[in-house]
Design brief:
The chain is of the alpha+beta class. It has helices at 34-42, 66-71, 79-88, 98-113, 137-147, 160-172, 185-193, 205-213, 219-223, 227-233, 236-245, 276-296, 334-348, 381-398; strands at 4-11, 17-31, 51-54, 61-64, 92-95, 119-123, 126-132, 152-157, 179-181, 262-273, 299-310, 320-331, 355-363, 366-367. Strand 8 (152-157), helix 6 (160-172) and strand 9 form a beta-alpha-beta unit. The mean pLDDT is 87. It binds magnesium ion.
Length: 436
Amino acid sequence: MLEELRVFWTVNDENTFIAHILMVQYALIDCNNFYVSCERLFAPKLCGKPVVVLSNNDGCVISRSNEAKKLGVPMTAPEFKWRAFFKQHNVQVLSSNYELYGDMSNRVYRALQSFSPTIEKYSIDESFLLLPRHIKGKTLKEELHQHIGIPVSVGVGSTKTLAKAANYLAKNRKGYSGVCYMPTGAVQDEILYTMPVKKLWGIGRKWARKLSDHGIKNVRDLKYTSDSWAKKHLNVVGLRIIHELQGTPCLNLEEVVQKRKHSICTQSFGRTVVDLAEMKEAVSTFASTASERIRRQNLTASLLHIFISTNRHSKGPKINLSYDTAFSEPTSSGTVITKSALKCLELIFQKGYKYSKAGVILSGLENNHASQIDLFSHRDKKKDEALMAAFDQINTHYGRGSVKIGSEGIQKPWVMKREFKSPNYTTRFNALKEVH
Ligand SMILES: [Mg+2]
């Protein structure tokens, strides 16, 4: 297998840099049925049973246990259509608990960092890493299972695309037990021949159809497509995929975490909102949450965008309203941001509509210390910062929402439906699991 040589630097006790030259391969680690696996960790009674996790507002299925897959429950199955089936087959239904999944995802990421310094978090349940040759995929899988408790599939190859294809095989073919090293030469071609082209990373439905029309049905066919054909019928992305299949790495690991460009907080309501008072609560909550997020990253925002809208698919009059405003000086203050958001809301709100969604977007983000100061501001910035620091400290210590801005309201009848949500086992003290 073609392997890359990489130099890694570490620092020893005497502050001397040490270079490690290692042979590396690309590995893709994908958590199996991630949301279900997280739930099972804290509710072992779910093990061995068919389990599904639902999307926001308990809309449709977004994660399934193997048992549920075997019963024939498809991805995105709408809950209301499958309710009777779930009952009949004793399928355990859960609302999504993103606080738990996010925390477990970070734990997996941190554990992976101990295997390789070069890592790209690709999604909540997938990471690419440059795996040093001496670390076996099997070891990785076993360690993650032992220390975090999450089952994963490991695919290894000489490029990201081949690692992703290997991961697909590890997961979907018998005989790999969750770890697949992409072979080389004729053996690789044999395997790629059995893999439909639409299952390859980066090939969407449109391209799959186009390729199929030209007689390219499996991944091996695509691998041996000529550059000139690819340039004519696909584009540079398609060409890169083909080169990667041929073993030439064209996609780097995006290690550098991209700086946030926006902080978005938006939600579909559990039921429609018709009056301004209730909408004010929702918008206050979103503004406060968005500001909390930028404070956590030590950023400030200079622009605010708010929107409210009715459901596109429901009957009755539809409307989509939004408003943009700029702060006189960049801020991360929850009170300032919430006040501005409410002012904007009052300007755009129209009676007579059944609103189903609202959101607040903060943009123009920059580092807190780099922000320009408004000479004419009367606001006591220091006092405000101290207040927000105390606000965040209390919420970190006692759980989110322990203190909030008054206009957020208490009852929150518009809040999204999550009837079957598990507790936040790992992020809230009062949700800690009890052991008897
Ligand atoms: Mg997964």
